[in-house]
Amino acid sequence: MAITSEQDKKVRTADKAAISVLNHDSSGVETAFDRYLKMQPQCNFGRTGVCCRICLQGPCRISKKADKGICGAHAYTIVARNLIRAITAGASAHGDHGRHIVHTVMEMLKEKAPAYSIEDPQKLYRVADRLGIAREGKNDRELLAEVAALALEDFIKDSTDPCRWLESTVVEERMQKLEECNISPRSIHTTIAETMAQTHMGMDADPVNLIFQGLKMALCDYVGMHIATDLSDILFGTPKPVTTEANFGIMEEDTVNIALHGHNPLLSEMIVRVARQMSAEAEAAGARAIKCMGICCTGNEVLMRQGVPVLTNFLSQELPMMTGALDAMVVDVQCIMPGIKAVSECFNTRIVTTMPNAKIPGAYHVAFAEEEAEAKAREIIGLAIDAFKERKGKVVSIPQIKHKVTAGFSMEALDDLLGAVSPDQPFKALTDAIDSGQLRGVVLLAGCNNLRVLQDHSHNEIIRELARNDVFMVITGCAAGSAAKMGLMNDEAVEKYAGEGLKAFIHKLNEANKDKLEGNKLPLLFHMGSCVDNSRAYDLVTVLARQWGIDSPKVPFVASAPEAMSEKAVSIGSWFVALGIPTHVGVVPEVTGSSLVNGIALQIAEDVYGGYFIWEEDPVKAAQKILKALNERTWKLKLHRQMAEKYDTALSKSY
Ligand code: NFS
Ligand code: SF4
């Protein structure tokens, strides 16, 4: 979208509620939208990846004048090194998240975390079966202890056996490919150490070797997030469809409004639970109720499991405070802008940090501890109630914008819905619809917001275009926050935006699941959860590949991160590529300073792994490229099937 006026330039968002807050604010408070403008112009050396600060002789910047760093490193080495260090940071973030949950499980098994329990034993059995753990004669706690021990091995083991969470969740051909290319990781922590060592000054200068190590690192990201998803489901329940609302209009003047922001469900689940028990305290303070609401991926976690409404996504995280109606913002880890503290000071919001590795100077800090999770939740809610008492009676200005949202489509939930159409092989309902041409394929919308592009605009344009073209869409992370806020993650959007094929497919699912849905209808986009739940999206690839009897690079599936921002997004995109999936990124990453590295990402990756990157900032063109990638795959799949039938042979393994 063209930015025309000065005002539009400041308000780089397509979210009407965010625009309303930015336009009406007279406090002069500074947000990311202002800081982005102050930051211009940004450095092109950094932007293209050719700035090296790995040793104290740097920064070395590659230019016409200096075509190598002081040590002689070429642009391709510098770009590759920077890239794979970003992947390492992303994988570390997801690994840390996953390992925190493993730790909590272990504490629970030692009776040291009384607030936690096995909420979903069926999920535990499925995970145990998938890992090949015998279940006979073991109770749930014994079984979970074995699962947790294997998870810990995937973090630390030194043997070259494959990571269990990788080997057991991808098709055999894919695992062979990863082994052949020597990118099957030993374990998450060893690979982090390997990669940091390999990118130290004076180590690896070979860009191809570096990129292969980067892909190995990215696969650790996948392992860490898959462990996080599985164990979170066991502890808190596997998501099922829930309907609620999204955007600033969910805040109410007379409720204690608490935003849960960050990524880890360990504390937020407790806050939601304890908030339901503390209504008397809220009423005593003059509030009608306590209302929890989510931001970023913690928001996704409590949305899909508890039906907690969505407040907003990454880029607009500072803005809900500016309505004057937000009493507390509780943050755990990742994607938390330090800028929230300064904004909170003008609007009486309590910012509460909770984790030892994510503090903000001047904010309240309530140290999270597994052994007293409920007491900590109570303390935090108490702070929010105190803030409400101070706010009571003061003017608030809440934009009355909110939309209906239906979320919570885990693989188990999809299996259930599709099973109503195709009971013996549920996902055949989806492959049949693609084979018949009713659907064009499957696309995952994922990733963040990024001020380089208009907030939420690319997500929305791409979603509408793909819907019109009969693409079945799953969605995670801040892309989901975007769709929820803008009214795309509900049944009304099916009628407004879906093409005839997609509409017919969703209607058929509605009809077959009438009893289960209890009057609700299925949405345009199927929400699979937070960013760690991109593991669920890849499970969908694996299930489809198995259903067709093919390797993942043949599956008509594309991943898209239209507004990618974080190092985690770089990591996720990289494992999608290694696992055979074309991956669109709507903000060109910092690799264009080396045509060699850029070429590997855009082209050579496809020759080796079947997956490849597509950089495209224009959402309309991006949608066209995504459709083209799907078409290539459906066409090839059809041709190979015809040939197999004609000559009575097995389906071609090539892609
Ligand atoms: Ni994913 Fe989720 Fe959002 Fe991006 Fe951040 S919250 S983990 S990184 S910004 S989608
Ligand atoms: Fe410069 Fe080489 Fe040091 Fe990087 S490692 S800062 S290119 S001298």
What is the CATH third-level topology name of the largest domain?
Rossmann fold
User: Reading side by side through the largest sheet, how are the strands ordered?
Assistant: 6-5-4-7-8-9
Q: Identify the CATH class of the largest domain.
A: Alpha Beta
Low-confidence stretches: none
Can you name the CATH architecture of the largest domain? Answer: 3-Layer(aba) Sandwich
* Number of helices, counting only DSSP H or I runs of 4 residues or more: 27
Radius of gyration: 24 Å
End-to-end distance: 37 Å
Strands, total number: 16
Question: What is the SS-derived class?
Answer: alpha/beta
Task: Describe the main β-sheet briefly.
Answer: 6 strands, parallel
Written description of the protein model:
By secondary structure, this protein is of the alpha/beta class. The protein folds into 4 domains: 44 residues, no CATH class; 162 residues, Substrate Binding Domain Of Dnak, Chain:A, Domain 2 (Up-down Bundle); 150 residues, Rossmann fold (3-Layer(aba) Sandwich), CATH 3.40.50.2030; 239 residues, Rossmann fold (3-Layer(aba) Sandwich). The protein is built from 27 helices and 16 strands. The site of iron/sulfur cluster (SF4) has 13 residues, from loops.
Overview features:
single chain; 655 residues; Substrate Binding Domain Of Dnak, Chain:A, Domain 2; Rossmann fold; 6-stranded parallel beta sheet; 16 strands; 11% strand; globular; binds FE(4)-NI(1)-S(5) cluster; binds iron/sulfur cluster
